[in-house]
Amino acid sequence: MIASFAMLHRLYLHPKMLIESCFSLIRGENGDFFFRLGGILTFVNCWDVKWSMTVQNLFTFAKLVALVIIILTGVVQLCYGQTQHFNFEGSESDITKIALSFYSGLFAYNGWNYLNFVIEELKILTSENLPRAIFISCILVTVVYTFTVVAFHTTLSVAEVLGAEAVAVTFADSLYGSMAWVMPVFVAMSTYGGVNGILFTSSRLFYAGAEQGQMPRILAMIQVKHLTPAPAVIAMALLSILYLCSSDIYALINYVGFATWLAIGLAVACLPYLRWKQPNLARPIKVHLIFPIIYIIATIFITVVPMMADPVGTGFGALIIATGVPVYLIFIYWENKPKAIRHAIDGATRTLQKMFVVVPAEKTM
């Protein structure tokens, strides 16, 4: 449904226009298209959770279809003995650059983290469901992406992969002839699915933070008719628009990657501390301490070492985290605010409540 809304007029006029839009999206040239896409996906996530999940399932299926096509093509290429690009020529040995490169690689595997944000959306929540979902998804993604990279290198050299605007599209252009147009469509659908998934999950992070009193309380309210966290979704969409100010996707990945892994690393560091200080806490999900320790060591490597390779990029990542400090200090930490400021905050909250028709969620025990 969303794909139809987003591209109906292009598809109706001529298929070539659809393909050109996909290429523009892949190259990041069509800023207006990004805004319209973000607006449509924001509307879907505010309107109905089922709509959002239907969109996600559709685009995830399209992505998997594209990856299976690429992998099967790679198998055929291997059968023909196309292994000339499997070498380590020109490999990077600088440890700081290797650490920095992890941001781009881990960006593709970050779905396990977003899964933690939507625990409340699970219909059957048990102590086994979440770890099982993360375990299965991590293995599946690792296997599929590894086979995909192998498939790419049956046809493309390392230089061609690094120089490609969209590797899957370059791969298709080399092998699929007149049917190469399908790959930009699949890549664009994969992009839509990624945007929708992050919008859905990250808005729940805002919602949970506001519920715990760590963010403005308007973000913990739900739409009375559609039962969706509309303010949190809209806040996430507005922040996403700010990221469009950067035209360098790799710099943006480095900014967000540093901030993300630093934040996750600090959160994981709390696990050994709490095991030591509060050993009797209820722990529905419990893992051996060796796993958080390994994770903390890896986080130190991919956050500290890149500071030497890209101090500006990591500095911007730290700045992204720092933007939350004034929000926390003003809205949360500062309890004895002057009456005028409290009235202004309460007035703004009531105005937004009326605008979005939202109320605090009722929790059932």
Automatic annotation (TrEMBL):
Gene: SLC7A8
Presence of the UniProt keyword Transmembrane helix in the record: yes
Taxonomic source organism: Trichonephila clavata
Name recorded for this polypeptide: Large neutral amino acids transporter small subunit 2
PANTHER family documented for this protein: AMINO ACID TRANSPORTER (PTHR11785), LARGE NEUTRAL AMINO ACIDS TRANSPORTER SMALL SUBUNIT 1 (PTHR11785:SF531)
Any single GO CC term annotated in Swiss-Prot or TrEMBL for this entry: membrane
Compartments where found: Membrane
Keyword terms of this UniProt record: Membrane, Transmembrane, Transmembrane helix
Membrane-spanning residues: 61-83, 95-112, 133-152, 181-207, 227-246, 252-275, 287-309, 315-334
Membrane topology, record value: Multi-pass membrane protein
GO terms assigned for molecular function: L-amino acid transmembrane transporter activity
Secreted among keywords: no
